[in-house]
Write a structure and sequence with these properties.
By secondary structure, the protein is α/β, with parallel strands linked by helices. The chain has one domain (29-55, 80-323): Metallo-beta-lactamase, Chain A. The protein has ten helices and 14 strands. A hairpin with an 8-residue loop joins strand 8 and strand 9 (211-215). Bound molecules: the ligand N[C@@H](CCC(=O)N[C@@H](CSS)C(=O)NCC(=O)O)C(=O)O. Residues 102, 153-154, 231, 237, 239-240, 272, 310, 313-315 line the site of ligand L3IBWBLD.
């Protein structure tokens, strides 16, 4: 990591602080998953093949559980190691936010057991910055990082606006992206917020500088791990590779070596979804991703984006130059 060697939040691993009894109530990831039951119900039905093949009970409905069981415990037992119902560190506050013009997900993470409640945003969108910052304010968080997984071609990043509106926030992007930011990260770096951290994994292919941010590996870190994959890996898809120095070969290799090597129960949070999905797991994508389950030769010969002639994103000519300078142009 370069560009911010003096910031104590980076690479720090201070002692854990005890949760404060006086803290305002904020739902933990487990509770958020339950609030998200609509998604779970519909995806459980959609992936009935997946559920039945991992179920030991005889299904009485598309869920296959007795009415006496709670939905949560039934889904947990049926989905086994690929469950998206997570136990999680009680210190993590997590929100998935959606921007509905570019179908972009922004993620808010904070360590709420730390006295400062340090927080970060991954892939904020300029149009939604006020919404995101209001939420940060309402929850009493201290935003320290505004991060990008890559240089976006379909929307303008919110990182520049956030820096203007909240002094002290540092923008983060990969060194390989060739963009402007306060902090440049590389494969293997760690970004700390309180006593939690994200690990940086290089996942180029959609763009040369794409990275995936993965929650830390350790006893005090959320379990299962969570991977914020940007456009490298989408739910049942992957980012296109036909511009911005993209490469199908690189994408295939980097997803296989730096995402599919994570534990199968790792939750995968994509940068976009165009079909209404919100989350998946490494195990699920290794089994069912129609692009990345094919062998490399097939992927390159049949599925290569260069042959698909997809229209370029509508905002590409505005977004690329703006995003090279953190979303702000003179
Ligand atoms: N129509 C949208 C752009 C849609 C698009 O190309 N999405 C990208 C990610 S944003 S650069 C992508 O990789 N999609 C994968 C796929 O399989 O379609 C617009 O005009 O903004």
């Amino acid at each position: 990591m370069s560009g911010d060697s003096g910031n104590p939040a980076l690479l720090s691993n201070a002692d854990a602080t005890k949760p404060n009894k006086n803290q305002p109530f904020v739902p933990r990831i487990t509770e958020l998953r339950m609030l998200n039951l609509g998604y779970i119900r519909s995806s459980a039905c959609r992936f009935s093949h997946f559920i039945t093949s991992h179920s030991s009970s005889s299904p009485s409905s598309c869920f296959g559980f007795s009415p006496k069981q709670t939905i949560t415990s039934a889904l947990r037992s049926q989905m086994g190691s690929f469950s998206t119902l997570s136990r999680s560190s009680s210190r993590l506050l997590f929100r998935q936010l959606f921007e509905n013009e570019s179908f972009t997900y922004t993620y808010l993470l904070a360590d709420i057991s730390h006295p400062d409640k340090p927080a970060l945003l991954i892939d904020p969108v300029d149009r939604a910055v006020d919404r995101d910052l209001n939420l940060v304010r309402e929850l009493g968080l201290k935003l320290i990082y505004a991060m990008n997984t890559h240089v976006h071609a379909d929307h303008i990043t919110g990182t520049g606006l956030i820096k203007r509106k909240v002094p002290g926030v540092k923008s983060v992007i990969s060194k390989a992206s060739g963009s402007k930011a306060d902090v440049f990260v590389e494969h293997g770096d760690k970004i700390s917020f309180g006593n939690l951290f994200l690990e940086v994994r290089a996942t180029p292919g959609h763009t040369v500088g794409c990275v995936t941010y993965v929650t830390g590996d350790g006893p005090d870190q959320p379990q299962p791990r969570m991977a914020f994959t940007g456009d490298a890996l989408l739910v049942r898809g992957c980012g296109r590779t036909d511009f911005q120095g993209g490469s199908s070969e690189q994408l295939y290799k980097s997803v296989h070596s730096h995402i599919f090597t994570l534990p199968k129960e790792t939750l995968v949070y994509p940068g976009h979804d165009y079909k209404g999905f919100t989350v998946t797991t490494v195990g699920e994508e290794m089994l069912y991703n129609p692009r990345l389950t094919k062998d490399e030769v097939f992927f390159l010969e049949q599925l290569i984006f260069e042959n698909l002639n997809l229209p370029y994103p509508d905002m590409i000519d505005v977004a690329l130059p703006a995003n090279k300078v953190c979303g702000l142009q003179d």
